[in-house]
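#help-structures
NK: newbie question, is this the right format to request a structure? protein is VCBS repeat-containing protein
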Amino acid sequence: MFISMLRLIDVRLKIVLIFACFTMAFAAQCSERYSFSYTFDGASRGTPGEVLSGIIEGRMDNDGDTILIERFIEVDLSGISYNLSDSTEMRAADPVNYPKMSLSGDVLDFWVCAEGFDGYYENGGGDCVFGVTGGFLISPYVDVNSAECIQPNETGQCIDWAWAGIPEKTNDYRVGDIPANKSNWSITKLLPTEVGEIVIPKGNDSEPVLFSFNSDIERYFARSLSDKFSLSWQGTYSQVSLYTLPDMNGNGSQEIGLFGIRSDESNEGKSQFFIKDSVTGGRVSVLNWVANWSNASIVVLPDMSGDGIADIALQGLFKEGERPQLVVRDGLSNASINTFSMPSLWEKQTYLSFSDVNSDGTHEIALFGNNRKNGKPQLRVIDGTTPSEKFSSYNFPDKWSNTRWLNIADFNSDGTDDWALLGKAISDGRWQLVIKDGLSPKGVLSIYAWPELTNIVFGRITDITEDNIDEFVLGGFSVLRNRWLLQIKDGQDRSALLHNVSWANKWSDASLYILDDIDGDGVSDLALLGMRSNYELAYKLSRDGYTNEVVVDLGSQWKSKPSIGFLTEPNDAHSRLTAYGMVNDEVFILPATPDIPALINFNLTIDFVITSQEGNICNTEDEYVGLEGSDVGKLTLDDFAGSAVLTMDIEGEGVPMPIEGLYDAAEQTIDLIYENDVFELFITAQNSNEISITGTITTTDTREQSSEQCVTTWAVEIRGQ
């Protein structure tokens, strides 16, 4: 029986959700957990009997033996824990391959650096100093630059080697076996935890949910942390994941889909996607595929059938020939629409919806991956309605590691989305964004570059330059500068660095975030989440040009590093940034927005009179001492940034102009400059609804190619509401 209770304890401080009475709960979406260990013989180095052990999340391959590793959850060397975090990086011996381990021990291929890679070899493979930052590996014994086997065994297969180091044992110590001893390897599948886990469904505008499984009644439960929905699905699956989908049944609410590989009798291995309405909990659609796939996942596509509703596709490797396929179904009726198939030529391949290249009203389908033969990134574009029709390919040299293919919206203003390859240059470690036309693979539209960084985050920042184009931002940790950096570049001009934002390296377990507007000015904000004595969220806000650091203390009570995200409470249109995670087997939600003064806005009536004129070019017919006038305007005061913006028709042409300057809340002064006009204003009275201001505007007019001037002083009286 699934029982849920919501206990509110001062909503300004925290919200605690308790979910109890699970005999078994879901472990992690789209993955399973395994406990592994390897006992070192110390054949090559170190003390015999050292044990490398830990827990991983991974997906079982279709051979029923090999596990594709998604992440290492915890690992220790003879009881000393590695410092695993968001910074941890892993790879296979050959970096183009996926890290793996196996139940039999026949396949062991993982290379892990606890605090991230701090160097790279010629083939893009990362590495670190095991005894300084912590690292371990069990993998084929290959040349680090070429990935060619160093020592084959008697059957011609490359031997494995095992190697580990950890800072607590100092950089002088390593333990290693060459070759690794397969008989010393053990691995066991784990049951899920009893509390459930917080996961974020795949898709746009997803909020975190507590996802659980009750084995007594064979039912999955998903409850949003904001309490907007609580759904459940009957069934048993070997792999499960959640997806957020756009409204499909016309009631204005998002849908939530559960995807899994069925394990019930007579349906073993079949893929199923069960979509429910997030408001009513009712069934929207159920899509089924036959059991001839491996590495299967869902791709949510824009309407491919012409009914205006999102359609659903299953992608994966078709068992016959391991060919990457995409089978598209009507999102509501489950009717077959199309099947897209490509040869088995790629590693790390994924299908995606692409631009409408032939202008027939239907998005094309594309496959992105690395070519097996040469490791080069490639994107193949296929007609969205006729799979046999292949368009030109987007081909790239083998110059980058850690590549991603990104939709960057319309870069060249031709009305079609454009695309980009993001990757780390193998030659110098810089991150590059290579932008390509969405309609043609020829040439490049632009290439952006950022410095060498680890643990990166990439995204878009709300338009800063007022050209209606969002800016690009990339950040991470700079080993060279020993600082966390985020660089914002103009969304059209790659050479224009708009902001260089940095944090000192004083937090452990740190990561960077690009956030929606926090401070109320409509522009994206930035933050670093990390651990000192407590977990802290260190903001850099756009209102003051990302200059000052505003720190929110999140406490030390968390079971592990909390996550941050926006939650929208029921019947509330406003999302609030929160920190959330597990505390004593309870979901703990903590408001995480910084306490900064809000922007204050007033509508103004402005009265002015000329009090003096000095100079020999003053136009006393149009402007003279005693001349009076009035205007209207708007004033925005920002105590946090120490800034003020007065908007008024300063030119007298009927067009209000923003005039920016300084605001000193303590001294109650406002200083503005607009071309030749200098404003010196003093706040005489102010409350939450009204403001009164006096002061002067001094205008200096200078004749061209002359030193002759006229200095006019205006006395100003301003009232605002």
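mod (FA): yep, format's fine, and the tokens are attached above. Residues 130-133 form the longest helix (4 residues).
NK: thank you!
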